[in-house]
Records
---
Amino acid sequence: MTRQRSVILEELRKVDTHPTADDLYNIVRMRLPHISLGTVYRNLEYLVASGEIARLESAGSSMRFDGDVSGHQHVRCVHCGRVADLVYPPAVPALHGIRVEGFDKIVGVRVEFDGVCERCAPRADAASPPE
Ligand SMILES: [Zn+2]
Ligand SMILES: [Zn+2]
């Protein structure tokens, strides 16, 4: 493993903020001032492919990365995109017995909750119409 890759992995595992590639670039630059954003992207792709980190995919928002690859659940703020781990996750739906036309089998399930984070809550209240 290259030094760049190990620094990226180390920094990602230190935080629980599920940073974007840009966030990580800014963190890693403190230690490796000459690293490029492209190098950060390439190493993140490699680490995802090798199963050392996880990529959080969600339509319409920027890709985030997780140094914790245990199968845990996330909540995403619908206003700012901030992501947090669920501390007491509810049971996920069972996979066996699910039948979908055109699919041979179901191999996994991803659950992501939508939320409003503390920082966005006052704004969200102000924006919602009066009852
Ligand atoms: Zn928020
Ligand atoms: Zn997570």
---
Amino acid sequence: MITFYGRKSSDNVQKTLWMLLETGQPHEHVELGGKFGGLEDPAFLKLNPHGRVPVLVDGDVVVWESTAIIRYLAAAYSPGTIWPEDARVRAGVDKWMDWAQSRLYPEANRLFWRLIRTPEADQNAQKIAAGLEALNAHLGMVDDQLAGRAYLCGDQLTMADIIAGATLYRYYEMPIARPVLENVARWYETLSQRPAYRQAVMVPFDELKGRLAF
Ligand SMILES: N[C@@H](CCC(=O)N[C@@H](CS)C(=O)NCC(=O)O)C(=O)O
């Protein structure tokens, strides 16, 4: 039985939980972190010495770091689809996955902190505008990649969609100017049809507004 730790309001938890739900594996979800606390408990620190969520425990396997969890779940429970077994195909997925985690997600996350988590009185309009421009430029590349494809790397959901697609709910819910990105909009619509995406990612973020604490 899998035990999954992490508060539903965390974006790193959301993408990981989305992956877990896609596998259909039975699991127990324990909300930790943020208003739930518990990250400094000795028992939790034994699982993840960094005191961060998400963490996944599957029997004697303990995994932390959201991308490591996604790779583990994809390899263990979705071989051939979300985890392509052909190394050449997987390399194509891996590069978009790692780019999404190292470039797209940080830009989306930075904008979210500047615009949503920072109290209005402390917001910096110039930094918000610069961040939005950078994020829109990244999404422009995603739009190009999605031309003629249902998903980022072809006609099936892969790990790359999980990491990159998890940024879209907040992107479309934030009060920002969005350029016309037809392929990204179509892809978001496709992802929104997936029950796992709706449950894990499309989570209102009101409780995070103006809140810098965690
Ligand atoms: N690089 C780590 C980041 C983990 C992380 O910073 N998690 C945040 C939530 S997004 C956390 O545990 N924050 C403390 C809290 O929620 O109380 C990952 O991808 O899993």
